[in-house]
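Example record

The entry below shows one chain as it appears in the dataset: sequence first, then structure tokens.
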Amino acid sequence: MSRPRHRWRIAGINFDFRHMDHLLAYAGKETNAEIVGIAHHDPAAMADVVKAQRVPADRVFTDWRACLEQTKPDLVILCPATGEHAEWVERVAPYGVHVLLEKPFARNLAHTDRIIAAMKKGRGQLAINWPLAWYPPHLTAYRLLREGRIGELQEVHFYDGNRGPTADPDGEPTRRAADKKKSWFYDVAGGGSLIDYLGYGATLGTWFFDGRKPSEITTVTAQAPGVPVDEQSITIARYGDWLSTFQTRWGTFTHPWINQPHPKCGFVLKGIAGTIANYDYEPTIRLQTRKHSAGKVIAVDPLRRPQQNPVQYFLHCLETGVPIAGPISVATSRIGQQIVDTAGQSAKLRKPLKLLAR
């Protein structure tokens, strides 16, 4: 059922994951939206957003309850540490709000189902934002795939990561181990490159495979001595007769958003009639078909409304009643979580596992 167009009231709660800055920037650009409040226990963490979005002092809170009760938002953007996603959704869902939850979905499948249950009880809609879902190379690859340009999809190959959560933004080497110990990214309760990045590959891979699930998962992980979580993982997923691979890495040679490292971050899709190489941040993709066996470089599709960013798309769905689709949907993201959970168990037990059941 569609809802009359109005000015959507948006609140940003919990700034543990600094993707919040980007999401609130998107909200600030939407003419049918208004940032009515932001909340985090540490005011310093909100300073950049306060300045960039010109948030008035009476809309800045250190108490999330006060933020919700006084500003009465329609939509809450949540960016807590991965291990606390379920707890935070359970806190805000009773207020009857819609929730845009920053990736990954949750710490594990049990937490994922807690989130889904809380949102169902609160009667709000939920979307899980995977930033790669808005990258033009991947959207272009999806279009070509659905058009049948490479035939039936057989394999998805994914490699992604960064210099590391405690690396300098300009790409300087990862800081000393003491800095890692202070970061929630290195907490065993929701940290590690596998949880940070495998969800991207598994969720978008599920999207590329049109909702198909792998039958078996084999994963190995690695990390530097003394580091409590993995900094590298390799997952092999069996889809029918063929194998797909998903690799994550904290410690790439460069940050991919500055200079693409080798291996390049992104995807390679292999179909029965061709291949597509769609790498993060790049302005072109490469399509290989029977007709163009040497490969053809294609400019990526420009992003168009209402699919230019997650906030814009979510508001569009809320206004029009169009179901949330693609990687940010609950159904697709939950399959991604199944793959991530199975991968974690496979790495721990050091053996192949059937995909974890519902």
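Notes for this example: The first strand starts at residue 8 and ends at 13. The first helix runs from residue 20 to 29.
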